[in-house]
Fold this protein.
Amino acid sequence: MEAQSGSFFARNEFLIRRLHSLTGLVPVGAFMCVHLITNSSTLGGAEMFQKNVDLIHSLGPALPAVEWAFIFLPLIFHAVVGVWIIRSGESNYFTYNYVSNFRWWMQRVTAWIALFFILYHVFHMHGWFHTEWWLKNVANENTGGHLFKPEHATSSAAIALASPFKKLLYVVGVTACVFHLANGLWTLGITWGIWTSPAAQRRANYLCAAFGVGLLAVGLGSIVGVSKTNVAEAEAFENAQLETKAAAAKRAAELLKKESAKAVTPTATATKK
Ligand code: HEM
């Protein structure tokens, strides 16, 4: 009867904690790595970044469904359960001050920073929702939302991050997210019994630290790449690319029209006979 009492969370704690741990790794952690690597391609210039963004946006109308199923919903689940874990736990950092306690405490501090940063970042670049009403009234240039334009990937990202305050905000947010993932990988190894002995946990420390340093370099590289962008040059490249694409689409439409006219002609002639 004991198991039936308490909140839904308390009754299903084991399963929920495992799902929380798993979602931190896949899809949320995996997405974060791909996202930072893609964004760091701004270091390679407007053409390289635009190519990567076009590849993602080639999903077309399926993109919002993919975003919600594989990014937003798992992240919301991880964040909601994370807040519940934080609120139900107590820190002994100030009592013992061991490195492990400090990391336990930092995992929670970076969770809060990640929560507010991701909420802001998704509004700032993506706008949260893409309905006509929302974009007209809520997420627009007046409110500083939905500033990333996929067809002007590099220039719009550079304009969105033009102010030094925004850059600083992104440095803090990205650093917190990277720490949270790298330190989280270490605790995840314990949660799933991957490193159990003290010696294995010590080795895992190095592995996770190296992963964290590498990912931080990639993440900060994205901010450097965007900051180094020459907006006028990036815009010129993007406009030229849009014109080339429009001309190719026009040619393809004309060809299709000619082909379908050819296909119709024999039938029309046959009818006349
Ligand atoms: C950038 C997005 C995020 C990623 C990649 C991520 C990833 C992870 C990973 C891999 C773990 C380790 C799981 C384990 O120990 O088994 C973890 C733990 C944790 N996450 Fe996240 N997380 C993110 C955002 C958040 C947010 C927004 C919150 C809540 C505000 C949150 C709260 C927590 C908490 C409290 C833990 C520790 C759980 C425990 O000690 O049992 N995370 N996260």
